[in-house]
Specification:
0% strand, mainly alpha
Length: 279
């Protein structure tokens, strides 16, 4: 009962947790650049500032797609934390991204179109790896549910080390971190699909990024199964890895990103699947 309450608590606070992680990332980035940087709560100050901005709507469908992107992503996070079906979670996550891509293509902005195109390529880079990881989980536990992972007697990390490495390789793509932040690329396309959102509707896209962070770290936690301390260690390690990578690498183009993800990350995940299938 207490475990269920904790999960509902985490679901309700997922955007806040994601915002705090974002604030910590900004501080680390500033320290690596020898700057003082913003306070930990700066993402929430930005959120409140955006709430006071005048609403500028390109058209109602564009605003609606932005809000549905946020809602569908929150539902995906909730199902994952409650131990639901991993295939359903991956589908909802894909749906959430597809809604944002549609919003990007629904405007007349060339930057928005470029961002939507690059986001679609990013989906091709990381979704096949997530599916292979889910299939590997099924072959190991006999179920596609995250609950079967939480109750598995030993950490999946020991049975799926290559799948974990594959996940590490695609997380920068999913979270738009350098060197794979081609979908956002502020210096090139000024944020991509975000550019035509404003006010409250931009907040939905802005906060969805925090939910995406929680979603990815929950995937990392799955590799610890029911070992809480190992889960905390893995999340801490991945946090440091992502920030070190994000602040020390140059952006690649989308062809290099796709080639790397499919040739390296997908291959590694698939090898782990074969090793699990073969007795």
């Amino acid at each position: 009962m207490n475990d269920l309450l904790i999960r509902f608590f985490l679901i309700a606070l997922a955007p806040l947790i994601g915002g705090l992680i974002n604030g910590l990332e900004r501080i680390i980035r500033a320290r690596m650049q020898r700057r003082v940087g913003p306070p930990l709560l700066q993402p929430f100050y930005d959120f409140l500032k955006l709430a006071g901005k005048r609403q500028m709507i390109v058209h109602s469908a564009h605003a609606f797609l932005g809000i549905m992107h946020f809602i569908s992503l929150w539902i995906a996070v909730a199902i994952l934390l409650l131990g639901g079906d991993l295939i359903l979670v991956i589908f909802l996550h894909l749906l959430s991204t597809a809604l944002l891509i549609m919003a990007g293509f629904s405007t007349r902005s060339i930057f928005s179109h470029l961002g939507a195109s690059r986001m679609a390529v990013s989906v091709l880079a990381y979704e096949p790896v997530l599916i292979v990881i889910a299939v590997t989980v099924f072959m190991l536990t006999g179920s596609f549910t995250a609950a079967s992972v939480y109750s598995y007697p030993e950490p999946l990390l020991f049975k799926m080390p290559l799948a974990f490495i594959a996940l590490l390789l695609i997380l920068p793509v999913k979270l738009k971190k350098s060197p794979f932040d081609v979908a956002e690329a502020h210096q090139e396309i000024t944020g991509g699909v975000d550019i035509e959102f404003s006010g409250l509707f931009y907040e939905s896209v802005f906060t969805a990024k925090w939910l995406d962070t929680v979603f990815c770290y929950t995937l990392v936690y799955l590799f610890a199964a029911n070992n809480v301390w190992l889960g905390i260690t893995l999340i801490s390690f991945v946090f440091l890895y992502l920030n070190a990578l994000d602040n020390s690498t140059a952006r690649v183009n989308y062809r290099q990103m796709l080639r790397f993800s499919l040739a390296v990350a997908f291959s590694i995940a698939f090898i782990n699947l074969i090793l699990v299938v073969i007795p």
